[in-house]
Amino acid sequence: MAVLVTGGAGYIGSHMVLDLLEAGEEVVVVDNLSTGFRRAVPQEAAFVEGDVGDGALIARLMADYGVDAVIHFAGSIVVPDSVADPLGYYLNNTVNSRTLIAEAVRARVPHFIFSSTAAVYGIAREMPVGEDAPLQPISPYGTSKLMTEWMLRDTAIAHPLSYVALRYFNVAGADPKGRTGQSTPRATHLIKVACEAALGKRPGLEIYGRDYDTSDGTCIRDYIHVSDLIRAHGDALRHLRAGGDSAVLNCGYGHGASVLEVLDAVERAAGCTLDKRDAPRRPGDAPELIAGADRIREVLGWTPIHDDLDGIVSSALAWERKL
Ligand SMILES: NC(=O)c1ccc[n+]([C@@H]2O[C@H](COP(=O)([O-])OP(=O)(O)OC[C@H]3O[C@@H](n4cnc5c(N)ncnc54)[C@H](O)[C@@H]3O)[C@@H](O)[C@H]2O)c1
Questions:
Q1: SUPFAM superfamilies this protein is in (predicted)?
Q2: Does pTM surpass 0.70?
Q3: At the N or C end, where does the chain have fewer CB atoms within 10 A?
């Protein structure tokens, strides 16, 4: 019995692989290394360089390893790129996910966990945003993920497959033991970018809009430590294996931090003053995005243990120093 982790050489997937190995699971990773790194996957996991859209490869892995669960991280994740290349995003995030789900059905793999995103909500009217809020993605990225959620929903009705789709809010931080972290070049995530700036890897950074209707005028996001996010996947796997129902769950803390609060935390952790420049608002940026975070606690019994902005930032900075 093994867990197939797609995208296990990437930022979040590499944390998942470490966690599964620590729990004594057999792990097989499939990753095409488009944005991931071979070195991020420990030797104890089987690694196959290949594409999730390669149905024959996926079928072989499921049969050879006796896969009982798929955890599907592989995908393309840069929202503005999805606007420039919508068909590329629908291919990699939607069409390739369809292939993976079809092979799971064919091989009678009973459980599936999917990396979805808060981008499925678009500009939510009410905060915090609960799972039952209207689904109105404003980017091809968000739509490509929502379509995969819907494929899973319909497949789970027609076939013996149970699934959990986790809608991540803003994932940040790194493994507290320093074994992996976010290595992606050209990353757009605020904490990553600010850590790069603090270490002189980029000249400074922009603050996109200071005139939002928030406490300090900058955007507020729900930053979740990657280790807490991974624990939610472990909880989801236990839930499904115990016969639990399929579920779609937000993954966030239920409170947020503003851009300025994040930058203050980075300056505190790094002991420096960042070169910050004011820039206009970016189209599509909501003033605030906070997870309604009750359902995941009720359904999975998830209890976060890293809900602390300074801790998130320190772990991200420690990883950035190693790169
Ligand atoms: N980082 C976040 O804040 C965030 C927020 C919401 C959702 N997500 C989702 O989490 C997942 C993981 O994101 P991440 O931040 O670790 O990104 P990442 O780019 O670090 O990881 C993605 C991995 O998937 C691999 N990959 C991409 N397409 C593939 C394919 N067709 N076949 C095989 N491998 C492929 C890449 O090489 C990479 O290793 C993604 O599905 C993303 O949409 C991330």
A1: NAD(P)-binding Rossmann-fold domains
A2: yes
A3: N
16 shares a domain with 74: yes
Which of 8, 37, 12 is CA-nearest to residue 226? 12
Alpha-carbon gap, residue 185 to 204, rounded angstroms: 16
Backbone Cα Rg of the chain: 19
161 shares its domain with 272: no
For residues 43 and 106, give the distance between their C-alpha atoms in angstroms, rounded to a whole number.
Answer: 29
List the catalytic residues.
141
Tell me the one-letter amino acid at 144.
S
Domain assignment present for residue 178? The answer is no
Does one domain contain both 288 and 139? no
Both 227 and 214 in one domain: the answer is no
Q: Residue 11 is part of which domain span? A: 2-172+223-251
> Which of 29, 35, 99, 145 should be mutated for ligand 1, with most atoms under 8 A from CB?
35
Question: How many whole angstroms separate alpha carbon 104 and alpha carbon 99?
Answer: 9
Paired with 231 in beta bridges are none
Residues with CB under 6 A from ligand 1: 6-7, 9-13, 30-36, 51-53, 73-75, 77, 92, 96, 115, 117, 168, 170-171, 184
pLDDT, tens only, 285-297 = 889 999 999 999 9
Q: 155 alpha carbon to ligand 1 midpoint, in Å? A: 22
pLDDT tens per residue across span 274-319 = 999 999 998 888 899 999 999 999 999 999 999 999 999 999 999 9
